[in-house]
Automatic annotation (TrEMBL):
Cited InterPro entries: LpqE-like, Lxx211020-like, PCuAC_sf
Key words of the record: Signal
Bias type Low complexity, positions: 174-190
Official protein name in the record: Copper chaperone PCu(A)C
Matches recorded under PROSITE patterns: PROKAR_LIPOPROTEIN
Pfam families for this protein: PCuAC
Annotated region (Disordered), positions in chain: 165-190
Extent of the signal sequence: 1-34
Keyword Cytoplasm part of the UniProt annotation: no
Amino acid sequence: MRTHAVLSRIARPAALLAAAALAVTLAGCGSSSAKTEPQAAPSPSPVEPVRVQDAWVKATDKGMTGAFGILVNDSDADVTITGATTELSPMELHEMAMKDGKMVMQEKKDGFVLKAKTSHKLQPGSDHLMLMKLKRPIPAGEQVTITLNLAGGKTLPFTAVAKPFTGAGESYRPGSGPTSGAPSPTASHP
């Protein structure tokens, strides 16, 4: 009986230690959360006054094309988009306007004014960003980087995916229209 008491006194702590070690081992193997938990995020940067949602560019082989999406002004102040740039071509801000009884596309020289806490939709047949004199084709699926220029000198880069679009049959006539030397639509626009 004395042997049994000595073994029990030794076995209990050993069994508890073994159980604890097994629990720690199983917890480490059974959960990969320690390995996949995200790193702490860096300090938040100031919120940009404007963001672009659902951005896309009409895929094309040559010439010119349009960029579309939703401009959202999350700030408490009006923001003016004064221009846009991309490495693929010169760019202009465009609008549709009535001229001589026809809807025509023209440069919007004063920019797009985004009222505080509102959005502004860029879409075919309406306001849009125009990529002029493309240096190369823009195939469907390509990610196109565009930078908006805001009044006051800030810029806002965003990415737009190129998509095939046949909803508007466009026809351009070189050397005509409201922009100097730039093609202008004779039917509708991108």
